[in-house]
Amino acid sequence: MKQSDWYPVCFESKKKYQSWVEARNYAHEVVSVCDDCDPKYSMEMQKQNRCIPQEAIYFSTNSRKPCKLKIIPSYT
Fold it and tell me: Within 13 Å of residue 55, how many CA atoms lie on the same side as its CB?
């Protein structure tokens, strides 16, 4: 999968993720989707197996610091 095709599974759609990216860029913030995640929403996504922070942080951050993707078994 190309990075341009990816969006976090915790988002309802790629369009909603793209809106988040635009807002992040407009605000000039250096964050990932997990930085903006509400704890209650995170817990709900974990229950639905839709929370994969390692992948989300790797692909959604706009930091220029090197980041290695570490695959950790998903919540079950």
Answer: 14
Residues 6+ apart with CB under 8 A from 56: 8, 10, 32, 33, 34
**pLDDT tens figures, 53-64:** 888 888 888 887
- Joined together, the tokens standing for residue 46 give 């974990």
In whole angstroms, what is the distance from residue 60 CA to residue 40 CA? 20
Q: Are 13 and 59 in contact (CB under 8 A)?
A: no
Domain boundaries, given as residue ranges, for the chain: 3-60
pTM of the predicted model as reported, rounded to 2 decimal places: 0.76
Q: How far apart are CA 12 and CA 7, in angstroms?
A: 9
